[in-house]
Amino acid sequence: MSSEITTGAGHTQPDVERLHVAGLHAPSDAVLSVRDLNVRFNTENGVVHAVRGVDFDLLPGKTLGIVGESGSGKSVTSLAIMGLLPSTAEVSGSVMLKGRELLGLSDRAMCEYRGNELAMVFQDPLSSLTPVYTVGAQILEALTIHNPTMSRQAKEARAVELLAMVGIPSPKERLKAFPHEFSGGMRQRVMIAIAIANNPRVLIADEPTTALDVTIQAQVLEVLHTAQEETGAAVVMITHDLGVVAGMADDIMVMYAGKPVETGAVDDIYYNPRMPYTMGLLGAVPRVDVAEKSSLVPIEGMPPNLIHAPTGCSFAPRCPLASDACLAGEPALAPVPGSALHRAACIKSGSLGGDVDVHDVFAAPPVPVSRFDAVPREKRSTVLQLKDVRKHFPLTRGALLKRRIGTVKAVDGLSFDIREGECFSIVGESGSGKTTTLLEIMEFHKDQDGEVLIGGISNKQANDSRTKSAMRRELQMVFQDPTGALDPRFTVYEVLAEPLQNAGMDRQAIKARIMELMKLVGLQPDHVNRFPNQFSGGQRQRIGIARALAVNPKLVVLDEPVSALDVSVQAGVINLLDKLRAELGLSYLLVAHDLSVVRHISNRVAVMYLGKIVEIGEVDRVFDNPRHPYTRALLSAIPVPDPELERTRERIILQGDLPSPLDAPKGCNFATRCPVFAALPPLKQEKCLTLEPPLEPVAPSAAAQALAAHPLPAPDQRFACFFPDGEIDEDMLVVHEQADHHAP
Amino acid sequence: MTNLNAVDPAAVAQDAHLEGADVVIGKNTIIFRRFMRNRTAVAGLAIFLALTLFSFIGGYFTPWDKETIDPFNIGMPPSAEHYLGTSQAGIDLYAMTVEGTRISILIGLIVGLVSVLVAAVYGCTMAYFGGKVDKVMLFILEALIMMPALLVVAVATSGGGEGLKRDLPSWLLLIIVLLVFSWMGTARLIRSLSMSLMQRDFVKAAQYMGIPARRIVWRHLVPNIGSLLVLDITRGVTGAILAEVAFSFIGIGIKVPDVSLGVLIGGATSQVQTFPWMFWVPLAVMFLLTGSLAMMNDGLRDAFDPSSSSSGSATKRKALKTRVKRNAS
After folding, report:
1. At what angle do helices A537-549 and B9-20 cross, to 10 degrees?
2. Can you give the pLDDT at residue B53?
3. How far is A52 from chain B (nearest CA, A)?
4. Is ipTM > 0.85 here?
């Protein structure tokens, strides 16, 4: 967005902009203009009206962010534009690309546009490249189809240029590589290279970073940014993550139930939302940069069923502000008073000014307080202790004679403890050994390397099944995917009864306990006879939590408990976990890649890198004052749902991916990607490369030491780095402000 | 702790929503609906049921049975007395066809059902335990596949096994032999399917709860491959019927005096010119039987396939509705 608009409303805007918003401009200005797009699907239940009247204009070089929950019609809209919907879907309305109508074109005619002027980047980079062709062949294919006259040399030169543009090192050699030789982030870069191969006018990115790690997400977003700059394409960015679009988009369209409910410039939407749904979405996201503890805003209920045409406002059943007037007819998208650019579909948009607090509107529950919170940590008993746990996998090669060519140190000397009533989190990229750590704890076998103590029972004593079942009663697990974790053929009753039967309870007691559990996790007790597929994602996760709590464990292991859920539902589950921890005195071991969730819910946190803890300590200390460069990079990579901050924030972009375990560095694991290491003089670099930094406590600052009468206890934060105060290499720092003036 | 028992308003709202609309349709209902939408499959089911019914009550419509010889009608074409004619020996073909169809369907159903059940348990066990157990069981399975089924059938039904032959009717013997050789392919398929199920979180969840392995196989694995099992049963039934016909045709399956469709077809091959009805009638019944099963299988596959487009397109459905409305007005 051009900078004069971002400075706020109430000043003169160029006429084109104003007309563009009012929908009155000449269509030739917009590179892509969608009018009254409607999509219907047939299902077993009847005809679903998935997209109901989407209008937008996309100007060259601009970015439009489409946000909304799953099922709100975001992806269907993009597929309809691309003409990729199945022939069973009925699409009506108009999609104009540079003044030419795309709807109604045959598949063959659409091929003229797809991959040429209209390109798409898909969500899952692992499955969007054909595994049997080299990356080069796939880029050449995109070039050949739309430029049949291009010579082979020219095409190859262009492919190399493209790969270099998306930041793939030694592009010439990598052309001959197959997709499986690339990591997920690299494959997404290749996808972007293919998408921009023919200089598209419009690039549609459908959740391009959802499947990636935060550090890789930051890289890919950077690449998308460069790609847009290089080609001048307009980008449609579809995402459920309000943080991802905050720094990138010029305009935002919030979709709900197949309809845009609020559109406007990015600052208007984030700082001055006028539709209760947008306000709820913003309030439901935990913030990684804010320490203040407040409950999240859950948006109650589910999106409406689109088989029946809504008679009133589609959001009214979930809206805390709904009144009778809301039920009389669906409100149209109308300009918000005071800002012509900003439109909202709410009859109360006028009264919802910038100073209305979302926590008041949505009645967020109070912050639960645990009885353990008052007790100092040292005085609480330990529920889980790991002592120097290791898990090494031998890497062998050779078909007949297996040679050991290396070791994968998935978990390498891990020690930590969890006290009663505490939530301890492990964070890190995928491949850092988080999940292996969980599995090691869940396996609980006496042949393990290292000692695991669960509620005082050591794995070294786990000889008989009795010790094991005693341990199983102390420790239960909640899985990442609520759908996969529940047997689809079991009713909720059977799901919850299984652990109880195994514990040897009689039928009456089981029944009573199940009723109790259903109430505990906020589900209706009379729904025990339903099957998991009759529940929504959030409810299924509640069932998973109930199953884990069935045998009254002390410690619950949470493996990414909310990452598969929508933002609004996620907030409800996080609030529930918080409540249960306080009321039942539970301890959690949480593994999550979403650092904002971690910050919201945990007391202590450990940052893992290649099987080792690089920083551990109290969550606010680690997040506010990170010492290890990796923690700093992780934190800076998290997008924040605050456009202003997002644009001016310094961001450390780590180079490359996790190193392969075979060529793991001898000294500090992180040296190969370390932004501090890169800026160090060679003498100091030598130390990083040869010595392994130990995990050492942070010394209290000299000033604080001098002020205090007694020597201060060391704060609860330890890290493993020789040069925590080193300068960060400038190449890896990205500040977006300068790069943002690409817009015409 | 008071609000511990409070029901979460979010969940209540969601429930109200679920109850209000007919959103939730049981999986079985959906499968049934999809199956019923496939005309061919429904026709197949009807033919199969009719044939089964015919094989059980068809005998009451004629005074003749498969053993009584009518000395006055030897090798006669169909007539009012003998609906389908008689054989060279003067036995009523209608009675023999009813009997043969029953034996064939019996063999098909028993072999189809039992072999799939054996395969399911064997395959799931292999997948669940993995490691050494898997290797040994897989070796047994491969060995059985290598064994020439044809020779074993020939030896069991004609050559050796005199004692067996005395105690068991030939059709039961054939069922046993067919059973031994029919479950391996399915078992291997089920093994690989279960292995992918093993990766699902609900199996891990059960393991972490300390549920014994036997219970996990029986309660979590077997039901979840149910749709594949149903498909394999219909396929197995067809396969068993065809195998019976083939074995009997070359003379090593069912032995006279037992009758089956294969025996009838095999016996009549030399008389196609002289007594055509003796050949064509059992052949037609066999085609009806296997054909109806194939038609059914097709519909079942579509019904179980979640990605099939059997719910039709939005435009078609809407057009249908408007047409209905127009007719009504």
Report:
1. 130
2. 93
3. 15
4. no
